Amino acid sequence: MASDRRTLLADAALDVLADDGIRGLTHRAVDRRAAMPPGTTSAYFRTRAALLTALVTRLVQLDQAELHTMTEELPPLRTVAELVDGMSLLTRRRLTGEGRRRSLARYACAVESVRDPELREILVPRENAGREAVREFLAAHGVTDVENRTHILLTCIDGLVFDRLVSGGEVPREALEGLVAAALRQGGRPRH
């Protein structure tokens, strides 16, 4: 029961952060969002730091589950078009509906993690099915320095999501195609 209550409160905290920003994230606001009596959140998460840690941990759990589900739904990534399709799906999910809300919370937490090593450790890019699929794709296409190129490609996609989250709109397919072409480039020549 306590575990369920903690999850409920972490989810409510994510909602508060997405709607009201980091300044709006208070124990009272989470109590209201979770429809719990005043003081419930502080009983489970005594400090703001504890609340942020729970929120970030839950955010990472939700992101990991989403990436796992996506890789199960998609066919194996064999062609550039298939990889770009997968990236397009991910960026759409991160910019719409519940994914957009998580993206808003994720970027707010990323800024907070600059001053909080514990949060930064939780938010560090994780091994997951999506990262592994990109790594395998690049390796299968003869890319050297697969780890570095995977990191750069995924970081660039994250930057595009952030840009569109702030400015609106979707991530253009052409931008994703360009990033994949750059990741596949060896010695100045793209590999197909």
TrEMBL record:
Keywords: DNA-binding
SUPFAM superfamilies recorded: Homeodomain-like, Tetracyclin repressor-like, C-terminal domain
Coiled-coil boundaries: none
Gene3D superfamilies named among the record's database cross-references: Tetracycline Repressor, domain 2 (1.10.357.10)
InterPro entries: Homeodomain-like_sf, HTH_TetR, Tet_transcr_reg_TetR-rel_C_sf, TetR_C_31
HTH tetR-type domain location: 3-63
Location of the DNA-binding region in this protein: 26-45
A Pfam family annotated for this UniProt entry: TetR_N
The protein, known as: TetR family transcriptional regulator C-terminal domain-containing protein
Provenance organism: Streptomyces musisoli
